Amino acid sequence: MRVVFLGAPGVGKGTQADRIAAQFKVAKISTGDLLREAVRNQTPLGLEAKSFMDQGKLVPDSVVIGLVRDKLGDAACANGFVLDGFPRTAPQAEELGNVLRSKQLRLDRVVNFQVSRDDVIKRLSGRRSCPKCQATFHVDFAPSKTGDTCDRCGEALIQRSDDRREAIETRLRVYEEQTAPLIRYYADRQLLSELDGSGAVDAVFLKLSQLLAPYRAA
Ligand code: AMP
């Protein structure tokens, strides 16, 4: 199963990608997670990416394309993958097509998650993240048991710098300008499925797993 999750920041792509990856036994490739890991480890790539990320801007295509190309070659992708947060620009989408073609593979489906702008802002501004294991919580909708530490690993939760109000506005504008055109790009290639991402996590997961069931590896 080779799928892409498309949609604005905060629509729930990452949460659902974790669950789909576990259920369908495929790799989850999140460029946001890979970039945050590089920032944490202060690698040259992380140092280059950090200022773009803090401001809510996109990291240059060449950087993310390299990251994804490496990951797609991993044995973990043998059974398939869910791409979360990639591609985000037309050149990234073209390059993904090239990489897959060079491996004689193709995408099965692109799922476009739809959530209203108001809900996205509420989800992002209340989000709290674990810097260690990447688990996410929400101050109102999915609080951690203690309120400020991760239920999974005990680390102190943080608010991502790009989940602050000014960065959220930038991310939504960048999404409209650079990423939303990919909806048309994949619709033209008969790969697009729309998904209402506005309900509870379990309800969205149920719809999504039904949508993706035909692509489960034999
Ligand atoms: P995310 O966790 O997917 O919201 O990504 C967090 C940040 O990482 C984004 O706001 C961008 O700065 C950067 N990023 C993640 N994926 C990409 C991508 N495909 N292209 C460019 N920048 C990205």
Can you tell me about this structure?
By secondary structure, the chain is of the alpha/beta class. The chain has a domain at 2-26 and 79-116 and 179-217: P-loop containing nucleotide triphosphate hydrolases (Rossmann fold). Helices cover 47% and strands 14% of the residues. The chain has helices at residues 13-24, 31-40, 44-55, 61-72, 90-102, 117-125, 165-179, 181-188, 201-212, and strands at residues 2-6, 27-30, 81-84, 109-114, 127-129, 136-138, 192-196. The chain has a 5-stranded parallel sheet with strand order 2-3-1-4-7, sandwiched between helices. Strands 5-6 form a two-stranded antiparallel sheet. The termini are close together.
Name a few traits of the molecule:
218 residues; alpha/beta; Rossmann fold; two-stranded antiparallel sheet; 7 strands; binds adenosine monophosphate
User: What fold name goes in the CATH topology slot of the domain at 2-26 and 79-116 and 179-217?
Assistant: Rossmann fold
**C-alpha termini separation:** 10 Å
- Please report the first level of CATH classification, the CATH class of the domain at 2-26 and 79-116 and 179-217: Alpha Beta
Q: Name the CATH architecture of the domain at 2-26 and 79-116 and 179-217.
A: 3-Layer(aba) Sandwich
The strand count comes to 7
Strand content: 5-15%
